[in-house]
Amino acid sequence: MGFDMRYRKRDADLPVHRQLLRQSIEQDLLNDENVLSVFYGGSIGNQNTDLYSDIDLRIVVNDKVFENYRQRKKQRAEKWGRVLFFEDNPEARHTVAHYETFVKVDVFYYKAEEIHSSVWLKNIKIVQDIHGFMENVSKKSMKLSYVPTLQEVENWRNKFFAYAHETYRRAMRSEFYYALRCLDNLRFCVVTAWYMENGIQPNSLGDWGKVEGERSKLKDWQLSLLAQWDSNRDSIEIMKTIKQIIPQFKKVHHRLCKRVGATEDSEWVDEILELCNFC
């Protein structure tokens, strides 16, 4: 069996392995008297899973046992299947377990008092809710909508300016991996702006999840622009790419400033970008 066929078969079975892993998780957690609520976010909550979707698991536990459960988060995940490796910070409330089936589980532990209505909790799948508080939080969250604030827009444009300048510096030093990372963040800043003006909560910086592909929330013309904003390890090509991005930045910056009441000051914007010959 060739490489391609071998992994196509494996990948086709991933939804089955994901479901089996969920069954193991729920069998364990739903019988734990200290677990107040169990719910899924991400693609499971949004009901748009594909072959490669992971499991975004959220566990709300009794306050008295929270620290113990947090400290034993890796041991708990090992009860659900054979873990090949973890992405883990011992001090954090979450861990990411990568299983032998090529399914990964992002696990977060919470105290009940830490759960509040949020646009991130609009679409969740609740499988246990002893006191009914998650159902209440979910209902309140469904009424929320994302609206960018003046501070968010100002912070966003300052990040764009900073990454534009830093891309220039790194390219001039021939630090091309660094320059390309900054260029990637410039592209992401434009995506963030597109999200903000369409009332979509932006991903955290550098999280390209669902930006492209079948589940993308972007329009075809936006995806087309993103595809054009590519570059290799060449300072001239990197600068050309930034100059291609600038017009779209200015357009979306104008619209966002108008929406939130920020001062646009196009001359000031040009002054900043001309320091690197981007205008």
Total number of helices: 11
**Strand residue percentage:** 5-15%
| DSSP, total strands | 6
- Cα distance spanning the termini: 54 Å
Biggest sheet strand order reads 3-4-5-2-1-6
Largest β sheet strand count, sense and barrel closure: 6 strands, mixed
Q: What Rg, in angstroms, do the CA atoms define?
A: 22 Å
Low-confidence stretches: none
Characterize the overall form: globular
What is the string of helix and strand elements?
HHEHEHHEEEEHHHHHH
Percent range for helical residues? 40-55%
Oligomer description? single chain
Class inferred from helices and paired strands: alpha+beta
Mean pLDDT over all positions: 95
Topology:
Blueprint: H1 3-12, H2 14-29, E1 35-40, H3 42-46, E2 55-61, H4 66-71, H5 73-77, E3 83-88, E4 94-99, E5 104-111, E6 125-129, H6 133-142, H7 150-172, H8 176-197, H9 220-228, H10 235-260, H11 266-274
Parallel strand pairs: 2-5
Antiparallel strand pairs: 1-2, 1-6, 3-4, 4-5
Helix pairs in contact: 7-8, 7-10, 8-10
